Amino acid sequence: MAGTGAILCVINVAILAILVGRFVFLNDDQTEDLPVTKFEESYDYIVVGSGSAGSVVAARLSEDRDVTVLVLEAGPDDRGNIHLTIPSDAAGFQHTKLDWEYYTEPQQYRVYVPRGRVVGGSSQLNFMVHVRGNRFDFDKWAANGCDGWSYEDVLPYFKKYEDMADEELAKSGIRLLQKLLKTDVLKNIGARLHSTPMPQCTQHQYDSDEYWQCYVRVLTICAFHQCCTCKMGALNDPTAVVDPQLRVKGIDGLRVADASIMPLIVSANTNAASIMIGEKAADIIKGNK
Question: In terms of Cα–Cα distance, which of 144, 198, 231, 263 is closest to 3?
Fold first, then answer.
């Protein structure tokens, strides 16, 4: 079905950064306490940025103990910061040292663009929301010259790092919320579930499992999901910056693996797709695909 890729669950994606076997934190506040104190004269791989994709690339490449991996991260270590594990605290990291605090170039208005400046990158500012996107998003990538990036191709990489349930978890969350709404605390403040039917789901009886399954598939919103500035495409595509192997055209030994390579934005939060890109990039680099 069209919405099977739009899977909503809650997952602490930032924990992926812990998988990194070797990193260097260029930390403004703790330069004397770097996790790595001995540096090699050269490295097999240098990963610039330990964000959603970069952390995965470094982690997977580091599984091979015969190679050396260097990770460069401008932000601080995330370990020991309990607030980074609390979804509701994510907004509190905006406009702090953990945020690059970008703004768009002024036209009529300037738009604030928060980006994570910490191990884990923008996944740390992501409220721990995890949404794959629609399967047709990735099929469009493949149709536009990105061979090997169809939904069938990338699904194994989503599954490789996911550990939580699919639509079932979202439906269970709604049922739990309904139970909480029956408690005296919430009844006393008049809390209630929004009951206006979702137009796309009127074929199902309201409040049935089928209705909520439809609901969580079609109700999607996006915010702060910048992407597509380093487009992936076919070798003969003049608008593409990287090829389907993520190699930057005209430069040897340089690949890009993050949300910027998306040829089209996914119809969902971009963090899950960015992690998938990291997983697939690691396999490409290792020669598995």
Answer: 198
| pLDDT tens digits for range 249-270 | 999 999 999 999 999 999 888 9
For residue 21, which amino acid is it? G
The 10s digit of each residue's pLDDT in 139-168 is 999 999 999 999 999 999 999 988 867 867
Tell me the two tokens of residue 275.
Answer: 């992690």
Whole-angstrom distance, CA of residue 183 vs CA of residue 181: 6
What pTM was computed for the model?
0.69
Beta bridge partners of 116: 99
3-state helix, strand, coil in the chain (%, to 5): 35, 10, 55
3 state DSSP class of 129: strand
Domains, the chain, in order of start with CATH, read 8-163+220-286 (3.50.50.60)
Q: What is the mean pLDDT of residues 182-202?
A: 88
72-81 residues labelled b (16+ CB within 10 A) or e (exposed): ebebbbbeeb
Main-chain phi, psi angles of 255, to 5 degrees: -125, 160
Assess contact for 189 and 37: CB atoms under 8 A: no
Alpha-carbon distance 1 to 21, whole Å? Answer: 39
Rounded-to-integer distance, Cα 127 and Cα 12, Å: 9
